[in-house]
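Dig into my protein:

:::
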Amino acid sequence: MSSTIALNREAKHEYFIEERFEAGIALEGWEVKSLRAGRLNLKDSYVVVKQGELWLLGAHISPLTTASTHIHPDPTRTRKLLMHRLEINRLIGAIERKGYTVVPLAMYWKAGRAKVEIALVKGKQAHDKRASIKEREWQRDKARILKGGGREL
């Protein structure tokens, strides 16, 4: 069984990834059950700083139908990220001074706890995205040529 719960594939296309960090996340019981079932979408999520703390916004955890009747799950609620103070201060400094942003790249299980891989990123322009696509296609074609024993396409 893979420990990865969900990936944010769009982030690699939309941003230049500068630095990666691991953060814990404060979850409710029904959210943990939903994560174990793999019901998470990180596509439109991002991280904000409020009062010196990091918060994950826009991550959609779909509630299970077997959730308790006395709770009313909010799939896109704001969730607190748990990191060391020095790491948080480093991220805040980069966000405020250098114009970076922070986005989640993946969520996974580590020693029975849900962890979020977040990254310090800078946005790509349209021409940068085209260059990335062109490079990715060239790598794919190159691998196909090498695998084929030198045959041309």
Summary: The domain at 4-124 is CATH 2.40.280.10 (Small Protein B; Chain: A;). Residues 126-147 form the longest helix (22 residues). The chain has four helices and nine strands. The chain has one domain: 4-124.
